[in-house]
Design goal:
Blueprint lengths: L2 H5 L1 H4 L3 E10 L5 E12 L10 E8 L5 E13 L2 E6 L3 E7 L4 E8 L5 E9 L5 E10 L2 E12 L2
Antiparallel strand pairs: 1-2, 1-10, 2-3, 3-4, 4-5, 5-6, 6-7, 7-8, 8-9, 9-10
Amino acid sequence: MSIIKARLPLLARHEGIWEGTYRFITPQLAVNDQYDFRITVSFPDDGQGGITYRQESAYRWPDGRTQHLSYDAQYRDDNGRAIVAFDGRIAGRMWELDARTIYLTFGFADQPGVEVCEMIQLAPNGRDRARTWHWFNDSKLFQLTLVDERRVA
């Protein structure tokens, strides 16, 4: 059994394929960017190089541009918080706050001084979820990301 399924049961309920829209907005509510996505979330069994979380993401912009990224992460317990490290590009921590809310803080290796605080709410139906990101640069809020999505498989 995956360590994620054993230690983070709410996160384990996010396994599957999700589709939705990312909207990046300023604190003044101006839209900076928007695109659709398809994300596949899986939890490899322990022993596959230490990888316990995998996310494969395909992004599609209205102008036809696309981007594909994969994120592999490792779980490490830190007094009830999961420490996640995604391929050296992203590093942070994750907590399950209640039966439907996951909270993360993370930063990007290529963006020193930037920290993101994210909340993910899984709807009781298990098919819909919403994410909200607060982006800080040197402790000053500069961007929000709103994500609405649904499980398609």
